[in-house]
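--- STAGE predict ---
source: upstream dedup step, 1 unique chain passed
mode: sequence only
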Amino acid sequence: MDQLSRLTAEQRANLVAYLDGELGESETSEIESVLAHSAVARNDVEHLARTYDLLDLLPRAKASEDFTERTMATVRMSDVRPDITQSEWYRRARRGSVLLLWTLVMAAASSVSFLVTRKFVHNDADVFVRDFEVIDRLDVYREVDSVEFLEVLSGPKGAVLDDIRTRRGRETVD
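--- STAGE serialize ---
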């Protein structure tokens, strides 16, 4: 192996686990093989080991009891689900749905009432609308002398002319 070869990205990611003795046999033997043949890789491992030694020399910060309690309270609160019925949007949505329901009930009741009234309650004006053609020609119908004349008019067209001729004939005879 080349003296200047470096560790691969995967091997570099496993270096900390190698230094802590947490790797399996195959990964450990692979990294040791690279370290045995590459001075650059050995230099990288030495730098990493010295960095961890320097970290051990730094003073350790102590967390206060208050910090621990707040952290634990935050963790407990994240596990608790809020009651959605207590939220403002839920109350508004519920109020809106009740209002919508009442509006639909009133619209349905109004429609049913209208249809029932239209079907079963008769209006006197409906009679006039139904008989409008007769009422419109009432003056003409008053001029008619007899019902027989109207019956003749309602018959075939030739019957009207025959009736007029027979009447003229009677008038001249009389």
